[in-house]
Design goal:
With 384 residues, the protein is of the alpha+beta class. Helices cover 64% and strands 9% of the residues. Helix 6 runs antiparallel to helix 7 and helix 10 runs antiparallel to helix 11 (345-356). The longest helix is centred in the middle third of the chain and has 84 residues, at 128-211. The two termini are 54 Å apart.
Length: 384
């Protein structure tokens, strides 16, 4: 937009300078009738003031019809015979048409047409109706062209501003989605840590009770306290900085995890989407935060499939690797158009959740059709 503005501005300057040059060539080479010193000054006066149109948007184009009208009283044949005078008049008419206020457009057009009538009346060799009609029509075309260019520029600026606002709104919605997901993670981690601390308290009490009776049996609860404490500290380090909204009451429902996937799959089946659950590798305990994130990713993937996949089948695959936990949710449905205006922020939240543990998330259409959501959660980084 800025480049086009600079080009259009300098293009008009070039036309103004060209008009002034044509005026001087006409004076010395054609030549025009009249006193040459007067015509030299007049030729500069009816063209060069247009260069000041940015500083004097109304006065600069108004100079042209005023100068031409005044010159017609001194040299009646000069203006009708000068092509540069007509060019300057058309430029002035276009500049009046480019004004945004209707009053300025109408006033400038009236001044142009009045000047044309006076010039034709002062020239005894001109015919009033034909000459006024011809030149007046050219001026009106120039005015309409100026109006069209201005309105197009205004619409372009309006569309650009709307696009900027939409982008800003989308970014704000994305930031809100990330903040909401972080708050959700913080709330869930609160429950994880609270559960871990409760276990530690119970195990420590059991160890204390057995110390005097059976010290060897006390080792097991002490080891459980150590393991649970390390896991809780690891979770705290990962969610450090995430803010929790203290106005919400804690969720007292059982904590979601990989053990809850069969129940989640059954719920989705009952909702109408056939789902298969596959578990690969040797299932083993994983940190509570990783387990919770895996559950939420599967939940998000199945929710999206249920909403957008249409008539389809879905598959959930959980892979226990040596160093990571991989979760995949795939469907073979036709899908739906990509969300707009910041919709679909569940994936934004999932990326934030996976990134918290140093993992990767891929989401997109499958080559064979359908949609796939794949996440990798490193287990070695999750270890305290």
């Amino acid at each position: 937009m800025r480049f086009r503005h600079l080009v259009s501005r300098h293009l008009i300057d070039a036309f103004v300078v060209l008009t002034a040059v044509i005026a001087q060539l006409e004076i010395w080479l054609v030549p025009l009738e009249g006193s040459k010193p007067l015509l030299v000054v007049a030729g500069l006066a009816w063209s060069l003031p247009l260069l000041a149109r940015n500083r004097f948007p109304l006065a600069a184009p108004a100079v042209v019809p005023v100068v031409l009208t005044g010159l017609s009283f001194l040299e009646p044949r000069t203006v009708p015979d000068s092509s540069s005078a007509v060019l300057a008049l058309l430029l002035a008419a276009g500049l009046f048409g480019a004004r945004e206020r209707v009053q300025e457009v109408v006033g400038g057009t009236a001044l142009i047409l009045a000047g044309v009538i006076v010039v034709v009346l002062n020239d005894s060799e001109s015919s009033l109706l034909p000459d006024v009609g011809f030149v007046g029509t050219l001026c009106l075309v120039a005015v309409v062209s100026g109006i069209a260019i201005t309105q197009g520029s205004l619409r372009a600026r309006e569309l650009e501003e709307r696009a900027r606002l939409v982008d800003a709104q989308r970014e704000e919605q994305a930031r809100t989605a990330v903040a909401d997901e972080r708050a959700r993670i913080a709330r869930e981690m609160h429950d994880v840590v609270a559960h871990s601390v409760s276990v530690m308290v119970v195990q420590a009490g059991a160890a204390e009770a057995m110390l005097d009776v059976d010290p060897e049996r006390a080792r097991a609860p002490i080891a459980a306290v150590q393991e649970t404490g390390r896991e809780a500290l690891g979770e705290l380090r990962r969610v450090l900085g995430a803010l929790r909204d203290g106005t919400e009451r804690p969720d007292l429902a059982p904590r979601a995890g990989l053990a809850g996937l069969p129940a989640l799959v059954d719920q989705v089946r009952e909702a109408g989407l056939p789902v298969e659950l596959e578990v690969e590798g040797e299932a083993r305990p994983v940190p509570a935060g990783i387990e919770l994130s895996a559950y939420r990713i599967v939940q998000e993937g199945l929710t999206n499939a249920l909403k957008h996949a249409g008539p389809a089948r879905a598959r959930v695959r959980v892979r226990y690797g040596e160093d990571d936990l991989r979760v995949e949710v795939e469907d073979d449905g036709p899908g739906a158009p990509a969300p707009v205006n910041g919709a679909g922020h569940g994936l934004v939240g999932m990326r934030e959740r996976v990134g918290l543990y140093g993992g990767d998330l891929e989401a997109g259409p499958r080559p064979e059709g359908g949609f796939a959501l794949r996440a990798r959660l490193p287990l070695e980084k999750a270890a305290p």
